[in-house]
Specification:
CATH superfamily of the largest domain: START domain
Distance between the termini: 33 Å
Pfam family, one: HTH_20
InterPro entries: ArsR-like_HTH, ASHA1/2-like_C, HTH_ArsR_DNA-bd_dom, START-like_dom_sf, WH-like_DNA-bd_sf, WH_DNA-bd_sf
CATH topology of the largest domain: Alpha-D-Glucose-1,6-Bisphosphate, Chain A, domain 4
Number of domains: 2
Radius of gyration: 18 Å
Shape: globular
Protein name: Metalloregulator ArsR/SmtB family transcription factor
Strand order of the largest sheet: 3-9-8-7-6-5-4
Family: Belongs to the AHA1 family.
CATH architecture of the largest domain: 2-Layer Sandwich
GO molecular function, one term: DNA-binding transcription factor activity
Structural class: alpha+beta
Length: about 250
């Protein structure tokens, strides 16, 4: 938390966060143009923001895209505001709608949804929970079913033994316990530009795991809003389940 307040104390860094809120997923060059600052100086500011987890980065070829990460801001809200203001999930949802936007490159889709969280568990354990059908049943309320080999199908299957799959796709990449890439679409869904794609990236971070989820090639802004709320809850539930063995309670 000290790093967050130190990062927010500088007006240049606050301005950078505002620019990312307006237009998320910017390159270093684009940010340099926005703030009219030398690359070396801007890199130092971004380093402070990344150290505070206020900015997350995703590689796209040789470029590194910068995204505003709302999690530390939510932690501030949860600690000092939520008890006196509005329910924390409503606040987080509203914050994420402003903080997470998408840009599309002409030839290659940019990450349209990016969420980073930190889980007090090993990368191997989080990797297992992403794939194990019983674990996903506990925190995701579906069985994730596949042999998890590149090129194999996978399915997000209901728990009611109906055999109905709400999401289907292909395992594009499975590099345990670091990176999992899946195509993502409804079983009978028509998507003119092909299925969307979800990437899970796991990195050790001290005694925790940094988990970054990107969801690209979404149909439109409405779909972005729909999946943003869903992913926020699923990843919060995964964090709770991995750290405590218990899923979040859901209001009736």
């Amino acid at each position: 938390m000290d790093r967050v307040f130190k990062a927010l104390a500088d007006p240049t860094r606050r301005f950078l966060l505002d620019k990312l809120r307006e237009n998320n997923g910017r390159t270093l060059g684009e940010l340099c143009e926005s703030v009219q600052m030398a690359r070396q100086s801007l890199t130092q500011h971004l380093g402070v923001l990344e150290a505070a987890h206020l900015v997350s980065t995703v590689r796209r070829g040789r470029e590194k895209l910068h995204y505003l990460n709302p999690v530390p801001l939510h932690e501030i809200q949860e600690r000092w505001i939520s008890a006196f203001d509005q329910p924390r999930l409503d606040a987080l949802s509203a914050l994420k709608q402003k903080a997470e936007t998408a840009m599309s490159a002409e030839n290659e889709p940019r990450p349209e949804f990016v969420h980073t969280t930190y889980i007090a568990a090993t990368p191997e354990k989080v990797w297992e929970y992403l794939m194990d059908p019983e674990a996903t049943a506990a925190y995701w309320f579906h069985h994730n079913v596949s042999d998890w080999q590149p090129g194999s199908p996978w399915a997000h299957r209901r728990l009611d033994e109906s055999g109905i799959d709400d999401v289907v796709g292909t395992v594009v990449e499975a590099d345990a316990p670091r990176r999992l890439v899946l195509t993502w679409a409804g079983p009978d869904e028509e998507r003119p530009h092909g299925p969307s794609r979800v990437t899970f990236e796991l990195k050790p971070y001290g005694d925790t795991v940094q988990l970054t989820v990107t969801h690209v090639n979404l149909r439109d802004e409405q779909e972005l809003r729909q999946i943003s709320g869903g992913w926020s809850f699923v990843l919060s539930n995964l964090k709770t389940y991995a750290e405590t063995g218990q899923a979040l309670s859901i209001p009736a």
